[in-house]
Amino acid sequence: MAHGIGAQLAISMVVAALAGCSSFGWGRSDPPPGAPRGDRLPSAAEKFLAELDTDRDGVVTRAELEGALRVDFDMLDLNRNGGLDHDEVWTENNRRWTESRTTTSPLFDWNKDTIVDFDEFSSTTRSSFRQLDRNADGTVDRDELRSRPVRRVIVIPQR
Ligand SMILES: [Ca+2]
Ligand SMILES: [Ca+2]
Ligand SMILES: [Ca+2]
Questions:
Q1: Could you tell me the domains of the chain?
Q2: Distance, CA 134 to ligand 1 centroid (Å)?
Q3: How many angstroms is it from 118 CA to the middle of ligand 2?
Q4: pTM score of the predicted model
Q5: Helix (H/G/I), strand (E/B), else coil: 116
Q6: CA 42 / ligand 1 centre spacing (Å)
Q7: Measured between alpha carbons, how far is residue 126 from residues 11, 29, 30 in Å?
Q8: Which ligand is nearest to the CA of 116?
């Protein structure tokens, strides 16, 4: 599989676009609000699908996300010890900063064991995926990619 921009960058771009704080989303060339958009998605969303929807069925499943994250992780784990050490993290964080500046989410060794393991590597991307998966069915579909996320912090208890 040809490797593209990577799962994390694809997700952080689409999250930023949907939040309206990125040039990747609805730009000046987009139709005004209310105009028919057809099936068109913001460019970041198209990139997100191109990167992560490996079976091309129009939805990104959690399994597709995990597969893409694993590919990214293995590419960074140059010495194949199952974790990213200081040099590997430093190189990757530099690359991310150069590529995406303000939308960068750097790798972080949360438990300070000097290595970034797969869960630490994936945590930001997984939580962004949950944010995009607004109906919590474990997949992100085109409808979810088209609509801006509603910032809801109140959880209404279900009976
Ligand atoms: Ca798919
Ligand atoms: Ca760690
Ligand atoms: Ca969903």
A1: 7-25+40-146 (1.10.238.10)
A2: 17
A3: 9
A4: 0.76
A5: strand
A6: 18
A7: 9, 31, 29
A8: 2
